[in-house]
Specification:
The protein is of the alpha/beta class. It is about 50% helix and about 25% strand. The chain has 15 helices and 18 strands. The strands form four sheets. Strands 5, 6, 7, 8, 10, 11, 12, 13 and 14 form a nine-stranded mixed β-sheet that branches. Helix 4 packs antiparallel against helix 5, helix 12 runs antiparallel to helix 13 and helix 13 crosses helix 14. The protein is flat, with a radius of gyration of 31 Å.
Length: about 525
């Protein structure tokens, strides 16, 4: 036991030494110390060669050349020290700024890879009468019989209150603002009064949520009005000028073409579809799967615009695969990647490891995770479980866990969803080597949640009982999974995690008894957890 402890201690010391040397070389490159030393050596060599030719021509004493060589040799370390302290730029000689070093927590298994912030906070409160980039969603509802508009105004009037509920729920859930309602046509604004970096994604997610909600209303509407209910949606992102109306905080004036373009896109949208402008599609690239519909001419502006039909939100696994395919571009993260790989080696030795990667959005957290995952996937025996916390599901219990087991089916008909979810659960549990008796509890709990989420009649159970059963079953699942192979549990964006998911993460951290699980978590600055203290 003592030898194993000493061996593990030596491995950790060697790992720390490797990381320290890597950081030292990175700092030497940043301070241009290598360039300064090379320039000095070249200058000294030219000076010595020139002196060896010129001094004999003037019958100079022989001791001058050796003294010059010694003087230049002594000056080399001095030049290196000066290059470390000072930097030469067009502004003159300036003192090189020091990098703020991340705090070290070597006494705990929870290691934070704190990445320097280079972008402001994602929430940017702005004043009035300002230029803002916003995303506008224009939606109108209609009744359709035999693929033709029913034009039943009385029926539409009776459904208006239900339409209001659908739109208001989308506004609340995705942090939008209802700015116009005319009959059964609604216009939503995303990016005001608070701007987010994913306003276009929020608008598109709201559009999908509206269509899914209409789908759940379909049986009742069909019974009452002998017709189907559909929505046509247009989404456009652009820069506008927004000013608050004097005396009314909720009333605003929007100056710009964004509203007109969104309305035009909505008229182009076939029933039940979502049409994106080229600007919105560019912001949603890699996040929403969309089909190009070519260039359409706006008759009002006589300008052509490329438009797209949104088909589905991209699955998180697909986004991770896209990130992993770009790992060759990952620069400047060698030290962090080496640290993750060291923790992975310890996890393979049945020593549970926990790593928190914290940094501003866009700094490279997902790219770092993608590069690490790409390395780990080369080991055929490794198991990677990826969970994604959504900003739209902060109040949905166990959302990333349920999404992992049940999958996401935004464009699948409801009658086939249950079968697809059951098959996915069976596949995941079979891979963990669990038999039917061992998985019955987890399977029943997940399908009960699925029944609730899809408005099907599921078993009536107390929420507290469901939570306890799910936590216990998840612990058994990960224990069985790690029994076969080491496991990497990736939880992205835990600052958006619901309380039940945080309880699950805490259970993995506090209850892991040599399972061989590397828990790799990402978060933004300003979020603290009990296990980071």
């Amino acid at each position: 036991m003592e030898q194993e402890f000493r061996g593990g201690l030596q491995d950790k010391q060697l790992s720390n030494l490797k990381v320290s040397l890597t950081q030292l070389f990175q700092e030497l490159r940043r301070r241009k110390t290598f360039q300064a030393a090379a320039a000095y050596i070249v200058f000294a060599w030219v000076l010595i060669e020139g002196a060896s030719v010129i001094l004999p021509a003037f019958s100079a004493p022989e001791w001058i050349l050796p003294s010059l060589i010694v003087l230049l040799a002594v000056g080399l370390p001095i030049a290196v020290v000066i290059s470390w302290i000072f930097d030469v730029s067009f502004k003159g000689i300036e003192r090189t700024e020091k990098l703020q070093e991340p705090t070290s927590a070597s006494d705990t298994k929870i290691t934070e890879a704190v990445i320097a912030a280079v972008r402001p906070s994602i929430a940017v409160p702005l004043g009035t009468a300002r230029r803002r980039q916003v995303t506008l969603l224009r939606c109108t509802f209609d009744l359709v019989r035999d693929a033709v508009s029913a034009t039943d105004h009385e029926a539409m009037l009776t459904l208006r209150e239900e339409f209001d509920d659908v739109v208001n729920d989308a506004v609340k859930r995705f942090t939008g603002k209802l700015i116009e309602r005319s009959g059964v046509t609604y216009e939503l604004l995303f990016g005001y009064p608070t701007a987010y970096e994913n306003d276009a994604l929020r608008a598109c997610a709201a559009a999908f949520a509206i269509n899914l909600r209409l789908g759940s209303m379909m049986p009742d509407v069909s019974t009452r009005h002998k017709a189907s209910i559909v929505g046509s949606i247009g989404i456009h992102s652009d820069i506008v000028v927004i000013e608050k109306t004097a005396g009314d905080e909720d009333e605003i004036t929007i100056v710009g073409d964004a509203s007109q373009v969104a309305a035009w896109l909505q008229t182009l949208a076939p029933p039940g579809s979502i049409i994106l402008s080229e600007k919105s599609q560019r912001l949603l690239r890699g996040k929403v799967r969309a089909e190009s519909l070519g260039v359409q001419k706006n008759l009002r502006t006589s300008a052509g615009m490329k438009i797209f039909r949104a088909e589905a939100l991209v699955q998180y696994d697909s986004a991770v695969a896209a990130i992993e395919s770009r790992t060759s571009r990952m620069l400047g993260r060698n030290a962090e990647l080496a640290m993750l790989l060291d923790r992975w080696e310890l996890a393979k030795g049945r020593e549970d490891q926990f790593v928190l990667v914290r940094g501003e959005p866009g700094i490279g957290k997902s790219t770092l995770i993608g590069g690490f995952s790409s390395r780990v996937r080369q080991e055929k025996s490794a198991r990677i479980v990826s969970l994604y916390c959504s900003p739209f599901e902060t109040s949905s219990a166990f959302y990333p866990v349920v999404e992992y087991f049940l999958g996401s089916w935004p464009t699948v008909a409801d009658e086939v969803v249950h079968e697809a979810q059951s098959n996915r659960i069976s596949e995941l549990l079979d891979k963990a080597g669990l038999d039917a008796a061992d998985t019955e509890s987890l399977r029943s709990v997940l399908l009960a949640i699925a029944a609730t989420a899809t408005d099907r009649d599921g078993p009536t159970r107390r929420p507290e009982d469901v939570r306890k059963d799910l936590l216990r079953s998840l612990q058994e699942y990960f224990a069985a999974l790690a029994e076969q192979n080491p496991v990497v549990l990736i939880v992205e964006d835990i600052h958006w995690a619901d309380p039940s998911t945080l309880e699950f993460i805490d259970m993995i951290m506090s209850g892991g008894a040599g399972l061989g699980v590397l828990s790799l978590l990402t978060a933004r600055p300003g979020t603290n957890f009990d296990w980071t203290a």
